[in-house]
Design a protein that fits this description.
Strand order of the largest sheet: 1-2-4-3
Structural class: alpha+beta
Strand content: 15-25%
Oligomer: single chain
Number of helices: 8
Number of domains: 3
Largest sheet: 4 strands, mixed
Distance between the termini: 7 Å
Radius of gyration: 39 Å
Shape: rod-shaped
Length: about 290
C-alpha cells in the first residue's frame, strides 16, 4: 500500500549530457501527469509518462526535467581552409604588389573573420534517451520508496483505527440484548401505572409489542455487515498495488451501516457508541483519500 504523496530526485550524466529529474506527487482521483521539460526534447515526453505510469497508478504527478550540456563537449570548431588560403594568397599578393616585406603568421590567419567557427553539435538521440532515462529511473525509485514508507505508516494507523471500531462493535453487541429487556420492563411498568391495578395486563399483547420493538430495532445484520467490511478493509490494506479506490468504497459502506444502526436504535448508550464509530470511520476515510 502506497501513499499518493511523495518526492523523488535523480541525476545522471551520459557523455556530454547531464539530466536532473524531480518528481512530486499529491492526491488526485486519477493518474494525472504533468511534465515540464526543455522544448527541444519534448518529443521524449511520452517516454517519460510511460515510465512513470509503470510505477505510479494514481495521483497528480509533476515532473521537472532540467538538461545541461557538459562544458565544451557539445561544441565543435570548424576550419574554413579555403577561406584561410584565400587570406594567405591575398596577403602574399599585397606583399608582392606593394613591395612590403613580411610574412603572415598562423595566429594572424586564425584571427581573420570566419576562418574558425564554433558549431554546436547535434544531439545524439540514443545518448539523450540514456541520460534522461538514467535520471528518471533514479527519481522514480526515490519517489516510490517515499510513497511506500508513507503508505506503511498509513496502513498501521488505519489498522489501529479499524481495531477501535471493532472494539466498539463488541460493546454494542453486549448492550443490544439488554435494550429489548429494558424496553419490556419500562413498557410493563408504564401500562401497569396506567391501569392502576383495575384491569388485568394482557401478556400476549405485551409480548407482541415487545417482539415488534425487537424486530424494528434489531441491528444484528448491520453489525455482521459492519464487521465484514472491517475484515475486507484489513485484507485490502495488506494487498499490493493500487487499493485506494477499493478502500474508499469499503469505508462508504461502513459509514452506511453505522448510520443505519444509529437510526434503528434509540438507546442512548448505543447511540454514543455509534458516534464514536463514525468518528473513527471519518478518520479512516481521510487517510484513504491519500492512498494510491
Amino acid at each position: 500500500m502506497k501513499s499518493m504523496t511523495g518526492y523523488g530526485r535523480g541525476e545522471f550524466q551520459e557523455s556530454n549530457k547531464s539530466f536532473v529529474v524531480e518528481i512530486k506527487t499529491i492526491n488526485h482521483r486519477y493518474n494525472d501527469i504533468l511534465v515540464k521539460m526543455p522544448r527541444h526534447i519534448s518529443h521524449l515526453e511520452e517516454m517519460v509518462k510511460r515510465s512513470i505510469k509503470e510505477k505510479v497508478n494514481r495521483g497528480r504527478v509533476e515532473v521537472y526535467i532540467n538538461m545541461e550540456s557538459v562544458e565544451g563537449n557539445d561544441v565543435e570548431v570548424a576550419v574554413n581552409l579555403a577561406l584561410a588560403k584565400s587570406y594567405k594568397e591575398a596577403a602574399e599578393k599585397i606583399s608582392r604588389e606593394l613591395s612590403i616585406a613580411g610574412e603572415l603568421s598562423l595566429e594572424s590567419i586564425m584571427k581573420f573573420p570566419d576562418v574558425l567557427k564554433a558549431e554546436k553539435l547535434e544531439d545524439d538521440e540514443d545518448e539523450l534517451k540514456r541520460a534522461l532515462y538514467g535520471a528518471l529511473e533514479k527519481a522514480i525509485e526515490a519517489l516510490v520508496g517515499m510513497r511506500s514508507r508513507e503508505g506503511e505508516k498509513l496502513r498501521e494507523d488505519m489498522i489501529e483505527k479499524l481495531g477501535n471500531i471493532d472494539s466498539k462493535i463488541s460493546e454494542i453487541e453486549k448492550r443490544a440484548p439488554l435494550v429489548v429487556s429494558e424496553y419490556k420492563e419500562k413498557l410493563n411498568q408504564r401500562i401497569s401505572d396506567m391501569l392502576e391495578g383495575k384491569y388485568e395486563l394482557d401478556e400476549s399483547r405485551l409480548a407482541n409489542e415487545v417482539a415488534y420493538f425487537a424486530d424494528k430495532s434489531g441491528i444484528d445484520e448491520e453489525l455482521v455487515r459492519l464487521r465484514s467490511h472491517i475484515s475486507q478493509a484489513r485484507s485490502t490494506a495488506q494487498s499490493e498495488g493500487a487499493v485506494g479506490k477499493k478502500l474508499d468504497f469499503i469505508v462508504q459502506e461502513m459509514n452506511r451501516e453505522a448510520n443505519t444502526i444509529g437510526s434503528k436504535v434509540g438507546d442512548i448508550d448505543i447511540t454514543n457508541m455509534v458516534v464514536d464509530i463514525k468518528t473513527e470511520i471519518e478518520k479512516v476515510r481521510e487517510q484513504v483519500q491519500n492512498i494510491e
